[in-house]
């Protein structure tokens, strides 16, 4: 290779020296880029980001940013936790970080959550009082008719939902007595009395781990006898049957659960070392699609509850427990086919629900670093 001329060599050395003396200028992302990234963060993480700089604090405090963040915020997780024989309702973000804890004196069970409300029960000696509670404030909105503890345990199956057209909240009660199934309905705020209505065409499968699922103005429960999901329209108060996935996925002795996943009815089927999740893609034609096959290290998984497909990253957050194992929250990444653990309360009891309560404006989490 021909050697460089003395003049060219001197020019290259001078250019290198000039570059060495010139400071490197870091290009900062624009305000729009920072706005977009921060608007996807959970509230607690956002509170910490507020301390980074004055510019970030001004962005986060802007009303336009708050509106964008609230439109992208994931629903909160609602969990029952127990501590020294006293239990609370704990609201968490999808990272498992506590956002609010509501201690409710005398509360006994957490049945279901919908919108910003929760259906719970209070126990006083031999009686049980159902109630609807506002999750944002912790205020009990209404106490429903009492029942004895014996009546409560007589294979009672409870559901909480909202009608599609009128927006009225209703409670459904299925009970088994002497091999006869009865069905009662209660309209919250309407004289607070149970009304007898027509029972489902098939026997509902009793499962406290998989309560009725509220979706599109109806409550959905598993059938015990056939490969069907029973659907109760809360407006017309009529039943219909939705056939399950082909292949008889719903069987009496198998661990099966149902849930609503981002507005779609789904079935979680547990097999040895596998969890299959089916989505109802077309309710009129009873078309189901196997959307997820999640590998597990456990041969037996007693219960799985799909909760949410996260907007950021597309991971599936779900709740599960196996034999002699504590309940856990995990996120399944379908691209990597791998699960990662989510921080789960050590004193978690029972199932987990979702809550769309706007509690951030009350506790100022969006603009508070603590």
UniProtKB/TrEMBL annotation:
Compositionally biased spans, kind Basic residues: 1-10
Matching InterPro entries: F-box-assoc_dom_typ3, F-box-assoc_interact_dom, F-box-like_dom_sf, F-box_dom, Kelch-typ_b-propeller
Region (Disordered): 1-22
Pfam families named in the record: F-box, FBA_3
Alphabetical list of SUPFAM superfamilies matching this protein: F-box domain, Kelch motif
Domain F-box: 29-69
Highest rank taxon of the organism: Eukaryota
NCBIfam families: F_box_assoc_1 (TIGR01640)
Protein's recorded name: F-box domain-containing protein
